[in-house]
Amino acid sequence: MLTNSVDDASDAGRPAGQNGEPRLETDAEGGVLSCRLSGAWNTRTVARVDASMRKLEAQDGLQRVSVDLSGITSLDTAGAWIIERLVHAHQTRGADVTVTGESEAAKILLPAVRDAVEQGGESRPRQKSSLLVSLLERIGRAMYEARDDIVYGAHILGATIGGAQMKLGRAHAINPAAIVNQIDRMGVGAVPIIVLMSAIVGAIIAQQGAFQLRYFGAEIFVVDLVGILILRELGVLMTAIMIAGRSGSAITAEIGSMKMREEVDALTVIGLNPVGVLVFPRLVALMVGVPCLTIVANFAALGGAMLIAWLYSGIPPEAFIDRLRDSIDLSTIFAGLIKAPFMALIVGIIASIEGMKVGGSAESLGGHVTASVVKAIFVVIVVDGMFAIFYAAIDF
């Protein structure tokens, strides 16, 4: 027989229950462990018996464990946690655990902390998953999140178009002032950065193309290269990427901050469709602004390429324009412009989805703004590639 007693009472001449100190008495014999707890087991005192309780949790080979709580005079969630942790540790090893002498507080607190102990208790053996399992788990979670985003995007698009306040002639009609304001912010306000970036990219393409074509004496073909590449692909793609970073993040931040301040709930309370009121003007502004900005980006990129071709390769602007007229046609121009409304719709819907998913913290807002930009740029590039494959299939 092994008998152990742990008593941290400052006054050894008084019983533990009277001086408020926790007391743990154990008796182990033949695979049977008996524990008798007494005194105050609360937040202020359980630290004094925590080490002893952990030693009891670590004992292996026990067939039966008995825990007597009749001597406990005070119990809170901290004490219930440490007791339930001992019970759970031996139950997971297959021991028969019985708890007796429960007070009314113990009958309430022990079941209350049981789920937390079972889910995150330190006594549970941790299963290490392999790298392949972790990778597959991440892929599965990403697929489910993508599915949820697609469903939510369809909901937002439908609610935007079919919202009650969007019907002309109803009490809450379309607000042209809100649409014009968003066009000014997202379209006109983005012109300087679009012009600057597009001109630089067009100049870089022209310089690199002329540098390589110089070896073959075909520098004039840099006009064909720049014209087709800018008008079909890069003009709309650069515009969509910059709008995703500039306007998409702003949409997510605006809607997310409204969600945090419960302004979205207020719209619902007064009978309006929050999706239509907040998203519709922004989507319309993007649908109008992105094609216009694409045209501006095309002109800026061609202007930058023309300047570099003149300074670097000696191709005068007149020759550049004549060659450009011969190398492109309307299909080249429309191949890029057709993509613009789809890019605008993608950026707007993704930004709105992430804005509506914002929680009540600043960390949530920052995370969803970042996710909005990353997802929008990724989807825009994928859709641009799908358009390229489709154009090649129909010989457009």
TrEMBL record:
UniProt lineage: Bacteria, Pseudomonadati, Pseudomonadota, Alphaproteobacteria, Hyphomicrobiales
Record InterPro entries: Permease_MalE, STAS_dom, STAS_dom_sf
Protein's UniProt name: ABC transporter permease
A Pfam family annotated for this UniProt entry: STAS
Keyword presence, Membrane: yes
Domain of life from the UniProt record: Bacteria
Species in which this protein is naturally found: Nitratireductor rhodophyticola
Entry's transmembrane regions: 188-208, 220-243, 264-280, 286-312, 333-353, 373-394
SUPFAM superfamilies in alphabetical order: SpoIIaa-like (SSF52091)
Entry keywords, A to Z: Membrane, Transmembrane, Transmembrane helix
Keyword Membrane on entry: yes
Domain STAS residue range list: 22-146
